[in-house]
Design goal:
The complex is a heterodimer of chains A (674) and B (146).
Chain A (H helix, E strand, L loop, with lengths): L1 H27 L3 H31 L5 H6 L6 H6 L5 H22 L8 H22 L31 H16 L1 H12 L6 H32 L9 H26 L3 H23 L15 H21 L16 H33 L3 E2 L2 H21 L10 H24 L5 H32 L3 H11 L1 H22 L4 E9 L3 E4 L2 E12 L3 E12 L2 E6 L2 E5 L4 E5 L1 E3 L4 E9 L6 E10 L1 H19 L26
Antiparallel strand pairs in A: 2-11, 3-4, 4-5, 5-6, 5-7, 7-8, 9-10, 10-11
Helix pairs in contact in A: 1-2, 1-6, 2-5, 5-6, 5-7, 6-8, 7-9, 8-9, 8-11, 9-10, 9-19, 10-11, 10-13, 11-12, 13-14, 14-16, 15-16, 16-17, 16-18, 17-18, 18-19
Chain B lengths: L1 H28 L1 E4 L1 H7 L2 H4 L2 E7 L5 E3 L2 E7 L10 E6 L14 E8 L5 E9 L2 H4 L14
Classes of the chains: A alpha+beta (674), B alpha+beta (146).
Chain lengths: 674, 146
């Protein structure tokens, strides 16, 4: 069983190498059949890795505890769904998931383009399979999921193998079921735009073909990354029990970094599509995003950074660092050697222009990315430079990223409305007068109501500003349609969105982001009370809520022992019913874990968590939090999802942008098909 | 020249502000990673600087008194040859992590007191590798590599 699985991985490794060699030699010697065989090899790689995955999942389900991986991540009493997710619950399996997703993407790309881009595809295949080979090396030789525990330990009687240890209890939660695949779909998916970008450099394509073909890929993977990050936040909020969802942990940062550069990329490609500008920059961004994805994968697996979520120490470090160093060096060399083909077709003219707002958007996103990377790697950097490991705390990240976020929010409002090339102060006044008045009015209103913190006031002001600008955009366009066709406002808005899905879908994404920012701003007004000792029958006060510990019940099942607290909740004297936080002790892993109770409301969440002494069950230690507006973060996600889906729908009318002031290489969109 | 100036100025202003924010908050929030012997050698310095000490929780050393927890942090995992130790007292607001228990790898964040006791305001803990890679029951010695 494990032999067949391991063999499948080994064969996949061979096929991936074959695909690289065959596609490149086929390209250079102009042998289409060789290229075709390389593409077939890509399908084989997928088939083989899928086989290996099948064997691993089967072993997890049947509880084949002879295998180290199964022993460490699964046990008999576990819910079947978690037996399946144990696939990515440990280091070896999660690397196999990476490999599998990559091979799936590769197969899809090869299939989609089997008749197109014949001169690009050999390079695309080569790049996809090079990365695949790297991950298969890990799967086959370094972190094999099919390692039998007793290998090299002599003979162990079968009867001595007991039950497995089970999946880490923290991972036995619904968002953790989908968070890793989502995040990996986003991480891995960025290889497709990257491969096309590099292939177009390698074949000296002058145009934007690679951007047009990979636009959907970029958006879809960006959506997966966003979903992954948000699910991770939701998981942290619902499981870790400290009352928040983000604490700038290296692993969280690792997931955020490529998302930031991907967001910058999504914006700056528009400059290239519409104006032929920022060509080098887009190459840099797409490469940075891809290598940050690999870097993030490395960060969580090599023990480079101290983190509560990271997998333990592993022998993977040198492999990943070598791969990163070689890959980045290769990318830099390729971009530098093709600079002539990446000349900009237009120049920045005015600070008050759409172009410059895109530039500032990129600048600020990259600054955020750099600051987070710097903070995350600070211990590593200082150790290398001064031989003294120094870390920075959470305030470091907040202090830098809060102003950045606010500036971005401002650009979200200003950017889409400002004119291309140059804008006059007069037209700015016309476009932004009402949004600015609305924003200031909200800020003044909140200040009058007693809100005194500077950043939250600015944040709410800017959120209003952006919402009103977007609202006006929709209203203007819809009114024009209504005047012509006579349909109602809602229908005209839908018609408007349908006519230019990218633009209005993008606006909807912006609304979603504003909603998320509103939710995040709410956390500035969090109330917390930690470590409150409460005897049964006693009560405590937090904000306007009164919490009374009514009863503590205990029980056990085959997977864990549990304690459930009945907490009577009332607000301003009015009863709101009961909340039931639960405390669990997972027997196989010998680890405690909390099921936090959260009362979700639009204005605020009430969040309670408790601990209990096993010797004294007449008393609990209660942590309670009032988290204003947290629900908005999750709500905003759905709006982002909707907006992105709209962006992905084809528009009713196809937009054509005439390029202005074409300089540099004139032959745009020159297809060099063989 | 004018064009460069027009764009250079706001860019320089933005990057300058962020650079200054980064520099000042790095200084304020810096925590120095130290091993237990290093802390002991630091002398006076250990009382002023914000330290993060890594070690293992010694078996049988955890004592809870009210909201205060004291324990011994030792250099090496296991029961023998634990190496140098450092008494730690924790009385922070946050509950101790679920993973904090005997033999767990712990990271104590705080300052050394004049009494030679380390006053932590945050404790991070990771399950000892013993639990992550324990051998199947009754299967003999602890595996060296898994």
């Amino acid at each position: 069983m494990e032999n067949v699985g391991a063999l499948a991985i080994l064969l996949a490794f061979c096929f991936a190498i074959y695909a690289i060699v065959a596609s490149l030699i086929g390209k250079w010697t102009k042998k289409p059949l060789l290229i075709l065989s390389a593409e077939r090899a890509v399908y084989c790689v997928w088939g083989l890795i899928t086989t290996a995955v099948g064997f691993l999942v089967y072993s997890l389900f049947t509880g084949d505890y002879r295998l180290s991986y199964v022993y460490e991540t699964s046990n008999t009493a576990m819910d079947p769904i978690y037996k399946f997710t144990a696939w990515w619950g440990g280091m070896e399996g999660s690397l196999l998931l990476w490999s599998w997703l990559l091979s799936t993407y590769s197969a899809v790309v090869v299939f989609q383009n089997r008749k197109k881009f014949r001169n690009l595809m050999p390079y695309v295949t080569g790049i996809l399979m090079s990365v695949q080979t790297f991950f298969l090396t890990m799967n086959a030789f370094v972190e094999s999921p099919f390692k039998v525990w007793w290998a090299g330990r002599g003979i162990v009687p079968l009867s001595d193998i007991g039950d497995g240890q089970g999946l880490n209890p923290l991972l036995q939660y619904w968002t953790m079921v989908i968070h890793p695949p989502m995040l990996y779909l986003g991480y891995v998916g960025f290889i497709v735009p990257f491969a096309f970008a590099m292939a177009s450099l390698a074949t000296k394509q002058p145009g934007e073909e690679w951007i047009n073909t990979t636009r959907r890929w970029t958006l879809v993977t960006w959506l997966f990354q966003s979903t992954g990050v948000l699910l991770g936040m939701n998981w942290a909020y619902s499981i870790l029990g400290w009352g928040g969802y983000w604490e700038w942990d290296p692993v969280e940062n690792a997931s955020l970094l490529p998302w930031i550069t991907a967001t910058a990329f999504l914006h700056s490609v528009m400059m290239q599509e519409k104006k032929g500008m920022m060509k080098v920059w887009n190459m840099v961004l797409v490469s940075t995003t891809f290598w940050l994805c690999i870097f993030g994968t490395a960060l969580t697996r090599t023990g480079m950074a101290q983190s509560v979520h990271a997998f333990g120490q592993s022998p993977l470090g040198p492999y990943f660092y070598t791969f990163l160093a070689l890959g980045i060096a290769g990318t830099v060399w390729l971009i530098l050697s093709r600079l002539d083909y990446l000349k900009s077709e237009a120049q920045l003219e005015s600070v008050l222009s759409r172009e410059s707002s895109f530039m500032f958007n990129n600048l600020i996103l990259l600054a955020a990315c750099f600051a987070i990377l710097w903070g995350t790697l600070f211990p590593v950097i200082t150790e290398a430079v001064t031989n003294q490991k120094i870390s920075v705390g959470i305030p470091f990240f907040n202090r830098i990223n809060v102003p950045i976020a606010l500036f971005l929010l401002l650009l979200t409002g200003v950017g889409p409305l400002i004119a291309w090339r140059r804008s006059s102060l007069e037209s700015l006044k016309r476009a932004f007068l009402w949004p600015a008045i609305a924003g200031v009015a909200v800020a003044v209103g909140l200040a009058a109501a007693g809100m005194r913190q500077f950043y939250p006031l600015v944040s709410f002001m800017l959120c209003t500003f952006v919402l009103v600008t977007v609202g006006i955009e929709f209203a203007k366009g819809a009114n024009a349609i209504r005047a012509k066709s006579g349909t109602n406002l809602l229908m005209s808005m839908m018609e408007l969105t349908h006519r230019n899905t990218r633009r209005y879908g993008g606006y909807i994404v912006h609304i979603g982001i504003v909603i998320i920012f509103t939710g995040i701003t709410g956390s500035a007004f969090k109330i917390e009370q930690k470590g409150k000792e409460l005897g049964l029958g006693q009560s405590t006060q937090i904000g306007r809520y009164t919490l009374k510990a009514d009863a503590l019940t205990a029980g056990a099942n085959s997977n864990y022992r549990w304690w459930k607290l009945d907490l009577a909740v009332s607000k301003d004297g009015e009863s709101l019913g009961e909340m039931h936080p639960e405390r669990r002790f997972y027997i196989a892993k010998q680890q405690t874990d909390t099921e936090v109770a959260i009362r979700h409301r639009l204005n605020e969440d009430l969040y309670v968590n408790f601990r209990v002494d096993e010797d004294n069950d007449k008393r609990v230690i209660l942590d309670s939090f009032v988290n204003p507006l947290t629900t908005w973060v999750w709500m905003g996600y759905w709006v982002v999802l909707l907006g992105t889906l709209i962006c992905l729908t084809p528009a009713k009318t196809r937009m054509v942008w005439p390029r202005m002031e074409v300089v540099g290489i004139a032959g745009k969109h020159a297809k060099v098909e063989e | 020249m004018n064009r460069y100036f027009k764009f250079g100025l706001p860019i320089a202003a933005i990057l300058g502000t962020l650079g200054w924010l980064a520099f000042s908050s790095t200084k304020e929030t810096a925590g120095y990673f130290k091993t237990i012997p290093e802390v002991k050698q630091m002398g006076e310095q250990a009382r002023v600087k914000h330290l993060r000490v890594n070690g293992y929780v010694k078996e049988g050393s955890i004592r809870h008194e009210g909201s205060t927890t004291t324990f011994l942090l030792v250099e090496n995992e296991g029961t023998k040859d634990v190496g140098d130790n450092l008494p730690v007292v924790y009385s922070g607001d946050d509950p101790l992590p679920d993973t904090f228990k005997e033999h767990a790898q712990a990271l104590a964040d705080g300052k050394l007191g004049a009494d030679g006791v380390f006053h932590a305001n945050q404790i991070q803990a990771k399950c000892a590798s013993k639990y992550e890679a324990a051998p199947p029951p009754a299967a003999g010695s602890k595996p060296s590599t898994i």
